[in-house]
Design brief:
Layout lengths: L6 E5 L1 H7 L3 H16 L3 E9 L7 E10 L4 E10 L10 E8 L6 E6 L1 H19 L6 E5 L3 H14 L3 E5 L3 H15 L4 E2 L3 H5 L4 E4 L20 E4 L16 E4 L2 H5 L7 H5 L10 E2 H5 L13 E4 L4 H18 L3 E4 L2
Parallel strand pairs: 1-6, 7-8, 7-10, 8-9, 10-11, 11-14, 12-13, 12-14
Antiparallel strand pairs: 1-15, 2-3, 3-4, 4-5, 5-6
Helix pairs in contact: 2-3, 2-10, 3-4, 3-10, 4-5
Protein name: Ornithine cyclodeaminase family protein
């Protein structure tokens, strides 16, 4: 018996760019993955890390998951190298591998650098949509990497901010970031010289920094009653006291809450200041209607997300479907 030919689709970076995914398409795909998670139709395992050599100043994240409604399993490998900007390379570059969960056969490989940036921004925005005050008009955002662009763009899609403040460690990066946002959003962006000027008193506060070592730069005293705080830096910048003022703490996945050494809340977990018992729930539970999101304007809420393989798979599937309709991508022989 002759074996059937096995082929899979390859979508490279230019293919992904030509898809021109709209804000609505990105948000709908990621929200669909969250809904499946909230309905118990997914499998997600904590990300794994590989550090080849500390001297290289970077590591790999390996994310794995399965989304039953999409009939896809996926593995994404993303490199996170803080000095890549000096080589003219993105700090995060990734590949997403999609498989048929029934047979294990490959379905597609996608350049997932843009996917990582878009799905991270979408998770930030979808969390804020349910956890921030609807009248939020001031955004403070620390960080200027690729995911930061999509944070601001997709948050503004929902909130249409009156004031957007940005800050990052390097002056040239924050200035360029602001110029890109002004061009794409059509509104003035305020570039600040420090964290406090960026974050203090904002309605929504996003911390997407790239610290090399733990430092309590993000101060509890800057947070006004009723704000929504969204930190996801790999190395924590939050004061330990911050948990004491939160009315709700929401996360993206309990399995990643329990595992790993990285993340904005890891010092608070290790110090016993936040636990599974004190966490309100996962964002997917709110999306699925199993738990409430924001219930009062005066609630101060923190949303911590590490990033979900399910979001990668869901957005990758949406891109793959759009690529088929547009005739983009290459078909490669596996066997």
């Amino acid at each position: 018996m002759t074996a059937a030919a096995i082929r899979f689709t390859w979508l490279n970076g230019p293919d992904i760019a030509r898809l021109a995914m709209t804000d609505g398409e990105i948000l709908a795909a990621v929200e669909g993955g969250l809904l499946a998670q909230g309905q118990g139709q997914t499998v997600i395992e904590p990300r794994m890390h590989l550090t080849p050599d500390p001297a290289f100043r970077g590591h790999f994240n390996v994310l794995r998951g399965y989304v039953a409604p999409l009939s896809l399993a996926g593995v994404k490998i993303v490199g996170d190298y803080v000095d890549n900007w000096q080589k003219g390379l993105p700090s995060e570059m990734a590949l997403l591998n999609l498989f048929d969960p029934r047979t294990g056969m490959p379905v597609a490989i996608l350049d997932a650098t843009a996917i990582t940036e878009m799905r991270t921004g979408a998770l930030t925005a979808l969390g804020a949509r349910r956890l921030a005050r609807k009248e939020s008009k001031i955004l403070g955002h620390v960080g200027a990497r690729g995911t930061s662009y999509w944070n601001v763009r997709l948050l503004d899609h929902y909130f249409d901010f009156d004031e957007i403040r940005v800050h990052s460690r390097r002056k040239e990066s924050r200035e360029a970031f602001a110029q890109t946002l002004e061009r794409d959003l059509g509104k003035k962006i305020i570039v600040t010289e420090d964290w406090q000027s960026c974050l203090a008193g904002a309605d929504i506060m996003v911390e997407a920094s790239r610290l090399e070592a733990r430092e309590e730069i993000f101060k509890t005293s800057w947070i006004k009653k009723g704000a929504c705080v969204i930190p996801y830096g790999t190395v924590s910048a939050l004061e330990l006291s911050m948990m004491s003022i939160m009315d709700k703490i929401v996360i993206d996945d309990f399995s990643q809450f329990r595992a790993g050494k990285f993340g904005a809340l890891r010092p608070h977990i290790d110090a016993g200041l936040v636990s599974e018992e004190t966490v309100h729930g996962e964002l997917c539970e709110i999306i699925a209607g199993k738990k409430p999101g924001r219930e009062r304007d005066d609630e101060t809420i923190l949303f911590w997300h590490r990033g979900l393989s399910l979001s990668d798979i869901a957005l990758g599937a949406a891109m793959l479907e759009k690529a088929r309709k547009l005739g983009l991508g290459q078909t490669l022989d596996y066997a």
